[in-house]
Amino acid sequence: MKAAVWVRVFGLALVFALLAACKSGPVRRVSEPAARIQQLTVRADGSWSVDVRIENFSSIPMQFDRLDLQLKLGEDSAGQLQAQPALSIGPESADVVTVALKPSGNARLAIADALAGGRSLNYSLKGDILATPDQNKQRTFTIDRSSALSPAPGLPGVMR
Predict the structure, then answer these.
(1) pLDDT digits (tens, 9 = 90+) for 78-105
(2) In this structure, is residue 141 part of a structural domain?
(3) CATH number of the domain to which 140 belongs
(4) Which long-range contacts (CB under 8 A, 24 or more apart) does 140-148 make?
(5) Among residues 3, 51, 74, 90, which is most buried (max CB within 10 A)?
(6) Which helix (H) or strand (E) holds 147?
(7) Is the pTM of this model over 0.85?
(8) Number of folded domains in the chain?
(9) Is residue 125 within 8 Å of 17, Cβ to Cβ?
């Protein structure tokens, strides 16, 4: 009789252990987001429309509240990309924020030269993005990205 009781107790303990293991659910990981220029469009008045792609690499949704990024073309400052998108991006997803920019004179010349010559142009983004991971405390993430823009074929005044 005692052996049967121990088997039942052991069996129940095993069932409870398995149920407790299932309770934990998926891992909630917050990773550094990324930002890059998806498209830069030169408007007729000389200002720019800059589509900034924000990538959420976290396993949970994040609310992106503010971005403040210094844009440089080569070594020259083009201006400050600032926005308060209040944009919710799902886990491991991305979305785009469009920011208007009145670029510096040197930046205007650099883009005009690259567009006219059909050449690529190096750029960098440095600054901060404020985001709130899934209703938790707001955090500041540092962005430091370098890449290049190239003229978009068939789209005058557009760099991608």
Answers:
(1) 999 999 999 999 999 999 999 999 999 9
(2) yes
(3) 2.60.40
(4) 141/32, 141/33, 142/32, 143/33, 143/34, 143/35, 143/67, 143/69, 145/34, 145/35, 145/36, 146/122, 147/36, 147/37, 147/122, 147/123, 148/120, 148/121, 148/122, 148/123
(5) 51
(6) strand 139-149
(7) no
(8) 1
(9) no
